[in-house]
Amino acid sequence: VLKRSPVCQDDIISYNGVMKKRKPAPRLLRLIPPVFAALALMLTVSPARAAIGAWATADHIKAHVFSDGLAAGLQVHLAPGWHMYWKRPGEGGLPPRLDTTGSQNLKSVEIIWPTPARFDEGGLQTFGYVNNMIFPLTVTPETEGAPVVLNIKAEIMVCSDICIPQTLTLPPHMLDPAEKDPVAAAMLQSARRELPAAGDQPFMRIDTAVLGPQALVLRAYSERGFPGADVFVDAGEDLYVTAVPVIVPDEKDGRQAMITVAAPAGVDNLAQALSGRTVKVILWARGRAIEKSFDF
């Protein structure tokens, strides 16, 4: 018997009466030590202009914005045993959303997503994050060179044995291009190192991507081989490709592999479903990741 949470119909609490614990992937971002020193700045700087913004809190989660000039980041701290989701959450959960109504001199703000972890939630494949995460933000002002005031209301679903949609209203945060902060800059630099590299790299590449009716098949290279490797596919908001990849290393060179990602259940022809789309593929192996786009 499947029992579902009343607040998250995609979240499985138990299967045949047995509670299922999530199993996050081993690569988890850690809290960056300079954060603690940076928090002291809030004692001496006006909150509206502080480089490190005050925390907004809700059950099992808290978040704040920090900035170095117009470069900004959203830091999220999750309670032990709880997780949030990637922009493509998979077979359960909801992606985070940012409402910036009331911001000043803001044209747009975009989340830059670190490589997620895979969760097996009672047989459902989902993608997300645990512990402490920093999401760099791309902030585009209406008027170049002028300060931006961010008013962010973050809607984030957090899950453990149940899922709870949370809303965090962050304090207004001013980004001034003339005001630089070394602590915030160090935090952003560290966070960017956790992002997948753009395109093929000397240490990793995807040589080919062939889309068939039943699967996406990749031919890839990883300098460190493929133990524990994973693939995350961003095919858009309406089609989640979540299957655990089948990785077959080359017999003569373990740095080369054929990777097969099966079509989702209910999709009769994956090639037809993704025809005309740009699909982003993240390949992760041994602490390194790349993201590469393919037009089908």
Q: How is this structure best described in words?
A:
The protein is mainly β and 296 residues long. Helix content is 7%, strand content 48%. A five-stranded antiparallel sheet has the order 4-5-6-12-9. A four-stranded mixed sheet has the order 17-24-23-20, with no helix packed on it. The longest helix has 11 residues, at 182-192. It is globular and about 55 Å long. The model is unreliable at 1-48 (pLDDT under 50).
- Count the E strands: 24
Largest sheet: 5 strands, antiparallel
Helical segment count: 3
Structural class: mainly beta
> Average pLDDT across residues?
87
- Strand order across the largest sheet: 4-5-6-12-9
* Rg for CA atoms: 20 Å
Q: Looking at the structure, what is the overall shape?
A: globular
Uncertain runs: 1-48
Estimate the helix proportion, in percent. Answer: under 10%
| N-end to C-end Cα span | 40 Å
What fraction of residues sit in β-strands?
over 45%
N-to-C SSE string, H for helix and E for strand:
EEEHEEEEEEEEEEEEEHEEEEEEHEE
Précis, in short:
By secondary structure, this protein is mainly β. The protein has three helices and 24 strands.
Give the tags:
296 residues, mainly beta, five-stranded antiparallel beta sheet, four-stranded mixed beta sheet, 24 strands
List the helices and strands and how they pair.
Elements: E1 2-5, E2 8-15, E3 18-19, H1 34-39, E4 56-58, E5 61-68, E6 71-78, E7 83-90, E8 97-99, E9 106-111, E10 117-121, E11 124-130, E12 132-141, E13 148-150, E14 153-159, E15 163-169, E16 173-175, H2 182-192, E17 197-198, E18 204-211, E19 215-222, E20 230-234, E21 246-249, E22 256-262, H3 270-273, E23 278-285, E24 288-295
Parallel strand pairs: 17-24
Antiparallel strand pairs: 1-2, 2-3, 4-5, 5-6, 6-12, 7-11, 8-14, 9-12, 10-11, 13-16, 14-15, 18-19, 19-22, 20-23, 21-22, 23-24
